[in-house]
Amino acid sequence: MIAHASIPQFSSASANNEDIMPFIELRGKSLIFIILITSGVDFLLFGYDQGLFGGILAGERFQQMLGQPNPTMSGLVTAIYDIGCALGAVGAFVYGEKIGRKRSIIWANVIVIVGATIQTASYNYWQMFASRIIAGVGVGLSTVAVPILQSETLPAHNRGALLVVQSALIIIGVAIASWLCFATLYANNSMQWRFPVACQVLFSLIVLVLCIWIPETPRWLAQHGQKDKARHVIACLLDKPDEDHEVEGQLSEILENIAAENTEEEPTWSEVFSNATRARNLQRVLLGMGPYMMNQWSGINSVCYYCAYILQEYLDYSQSMALILASVAFTQYAIFSWPPYFYIDRIGRRWTVIYSSAGCAICMAIIAGCLLKTTHSATAAAVAFIFLYLDCFTMGILPVSWSYSAEIQPLRVRNKSTAVGVFSHWMSNFVVVMVTPIGLDNIGGNYFWIWAIVCASFIPLTYFFGVETSGRTLEQVDQMFFDEPRILMGLNANHRRVLHQSASDEEQRFKQFGEKRASISQTEDVEKS
């Protein structure tokens, strides 16, 4: 489907105003590659931020700058970042559809640079507190825009595998943060924490430079009446001429679904949360929120944010050994984030989450049991199953959570619905990060029994309610809700089925669609004449 890259050209993919945001035109594999790299670096920044405070929080210089805060205040300055991210998701809900996917990513990274710069220059607790919120707003905005950008540009037959790159880079970001914090641990000045914090700026600058090559998505352009631009972007993605039947087929399918949703006016808040639409918006908002909530309520950030803290405070490791073990754990975590590339489109999103949830539940139960008695063997087993838990999570729940919502939402409310899911993710993240030190302090290892039970509950929820999106275009996902709507979508065999399509199958399907549309247009022209 995707051929060789052609010579770059200057083109325009502006949102509301012509020629404000030109991009250097790439085609085919080169364009797909740059979309993946841009999205990946953006999510690497997201992962880096998740691992950052876990590495610097216990540092002597950082604690001095914060004024030696108590555990509650330490948890607050760590978790307040998630409130900023939630506010960024709200901003995406209100403005994201107006400014488009590409502009949302650009503005998001500008905001991150502002927040990270203030963090690096902080000299007291409250300055760090405020700047964490600012940086969080940027990350929250980008975590809405990036998954939508990818879902609306990547080919359907291997979209899941390509989206694994994004989730894998989140974990690579966590690992980089952990090792970098260990490298600066013994600095005798504020560089112990200022240098790792300042690195956030580098990642955002890379994203901003890469955005030069990113076009606006064809679905957003078509939604806003820019059909010719939408056609041209599809042609660039497929590396085909604008008048090719496959290009016309993709555009026609998008336009038909836009017409079916009656998109003349901006969707209202109430419409997003209404099931009285053909697309069943409320049901799909809830389905999209599911994996985001699973991501957080699996307990992952009780481990990611506090891995070194748990190893040091509850398993009696020294600070340096705790950081080394945490860094090794996150490195393994990053390595095991890649296997889903080979199976997520084969077994589907539903079974990927079900198997992952079962593994996470078992690991959390064993960790809880091991922490009841801190003997040498129990401690070793707890460390081993923390490692295994991270592997189980990254091989299933993680890659699905950051792709599914954008895939399941109808185009008309996709930006707003995805923003709702991201908002639920970040608010859940805030709660988990805030309560973990309190929970560990009050009930110790028994805290992990909670996550074992919650992870186990994901299995029936996914089986009964989940819709399979693997191998389907976003318009084919819409069709499932148009044709066979029900609450327990997972009980319908058609909704559980994984479509195994090759690039040639996808190409042939769109060519037939385009030829059919061309034939209908010719017939209509003859009748008019």
TrEMBL record:
GO terms for cellular component: membrane. Residues 35-470 form the Major facilitator superfamily (MFS) profile domain. The keyword GTP-binding does not apply. This is Major facilitator superfamily (MFS) profile domain-containing protein. Belongs to the major facilitator superfamily. Sugar transporter (TC 2.A.1.1) family. Residues 507-518 have a biased composition (Basic and acidic residues). It comes from Exophiala bonariae. GO terms for molecular function: carbohydrate:proton symporter activity. Residues 507-529 are annotated as: Disordered. Keywords: Membrane, Transmembrane, Transmembrane helix, Transport. The lineage of its organism: Eukaryota, Fungi, Dikarya, Ascomycota, Pezizomycotina. The keyword Oxidoreductase does not apply. PANTHER family: MAJOR FACILITATOR SUPERFAMILY (MFS) PROFILE DOMAIN-CONTAINING PROTEIN-RELATED (PTHR48022:SF28), PLASTIDIC GLUCOSE TRANSPORTER 4 (PTHR48022). Pfam families: Sugar_tr. The chain crosses the membrane at residues 31-53, 73-94, 129-149, 161-187, 193-214, 321-341, 353-372, 379-402, 422-440, 447-466. SUPFAM superfamilies: MFS general substrate transporter (SSF103473). It is a multi-pass membrane protein. Coiled coil: none annotated. InterPro entries: MFS_dom, MFS_sugar_transport-like, MFS_Sugar_Transporters, MFS_trans_sf, Sugar/inositol_transpt, Sugar_transporter_CS. It is found in: Membrane.
